[in-house]
Amino acid sequence: MPVDLSSVPGAAGEPQAQYAPPPIVGEGYPLTDRQAELLALAADLGREKFGPRAARYDREASFPFESFEDLRSAGLLGLCVPQRYGGLGADYATYMILDAEIGRHCGATALTWNMHVCPTLWSGTLCDDLDMTVEQRAEHERHRSLHFERIVKEGKVYAQPFSEGGAAAAGKAPFGTLADKVEGGWLLNGRKIFASLSGAADYYGVLCTENKPDRSVRDTLYMAVPSDAPGFSIAGEWDPMGMRGTVSRTLIMKDVFVPDEAQLMPRGLYFQAANRWPHMFTTLSATYMGLAQAAYDFTIRYLRGEVPAAPPVKRRMYPTKQIAVAQMHVQLEQARALFLRTIGEAKIDPSKNERLRAYASHYTVMEYANEIARLAIRTCGGQSILRSLPLERIYRDSRCGALMLPWTAELCLDRIGREALYEYGEADD
Ligand SMILES: Cc1cc2nc3c(=O)[nH]c(=O)nc-3n(C[C@H](O)[C@H](O)[C@H](O)COP(=O)(O)OP(=O)(O)OC[C@H]3O[C@@H](n4cnc5c(N)ncnc54)[C@H](O)[C@@H]3O)c2cc1C
Q1: 130 CB less than 6 Å from ligand 1?
Q2: What's the CA-to-centroid distance between 46 and ligand 1, angstroms?
Q3: In CATH, which superfamily holds the domain spanning 277-421?
Q4: What's the angle, vertex CA 196, arms to CA 194 and CA 201, rounded to 5?
């Protein structure tokens, strides 16, 4: 008896539905109403504004100023500023989901937005969890209200320059940038490399060390340095392989005075945060989760002949393509599963397994993003690497994640291996 195929899409020769990319959290993930609303906002901005501009920022190695203007207008510069300071009051998990969505459309916008959001998240909800004296808490309240007001009312942009080219950004040595206490504030001297948003930020959240004898990582300070402070300058070229729109040049500080209220965390608190709130370092992975999804989505569309700027040639019928897509799908879902589980576990004093899982998640997202993009290029073939298409940019951008301190892919493995065999903070045998 003949089977009635009239209700099957495409069976009657009519055009088939085009590939509909899934939400970045996958279907059925339990978002709150507020998260769903914010995610829809990020998706609209990404699709309509950030994505179409991404190629230009990449080609010019120029900062995504227009996209930051859109983030500002949408209130997203204050995403993680607590509501009582006028921000949107979003938590860590909400931020991670939104940044991953933006990363699907423009890696550089997502990564630089991360550098701006971190100071708000760290001096906001993260600091609320830390142990402080009553005096420290009151002082921090005064300081952060100033920083939050700048962001929410004046639309100021913060950056996150830690790296110095030595062992400090990996958490293994005190920062070489030094802060001397002077009347009413601090004098900063030092140099930061790879400072994303260089020339675009209004304030740079600099990690430095209080200059005193026998200084150690416990003496780390976290200061917002204004871009127009005397003695502050930006140097060096920026012409890298990937993430070109981050414009991550070198910052030089020579006797830069910052007032006491420049502190984004009270003295000694950064050390406590880094040890007790390890998920603070996983925020970088969100951008790369988005890039992994983007590489996969491109491949599906390309093999189905649905990429608008490419010829409508179908290549999906070849078993080798199908196997490659299956590999990409498995890696993408592995990365997403770990990512979503980990963002739900971020908190102060996570258990040993939660801490190890955070490293594993970070490692997986950073490595798989590039692996999925690599497979995408091999599978789609030569025409897919033309600069008129986004895949080669996604590939180059995705290469950068595993290199980013403090949790490079190598250092994640170092930490997993050691901390699985020892307890956190335990000395070598
Ligand atoms: C696009 C982009 C944007 C960036 N933006 C910023 C930013 O905004 N702010 C910022 O602070 N940094 C930023 N960085 C810098 C980044 O976090 C790293 O600091 C930088 O990539 C380190 O490069 P390096 O070659 O100097 O690393 P090195 O310190 O020379 O390390 C090389 C490798 O050795 C390993 N390694 C390093 N230290 C140790 C150790 N103690 N033990 C074992 N292994 C170790 C790591 O795996 C590392 O990848 C950015 C980097 C990129 C690529």
Answers
A1: no
A2: 28
A3: Butyryl-CoA Dehydrogenase, subunit A, domain 3 (1.20.140.10)
A4: 135
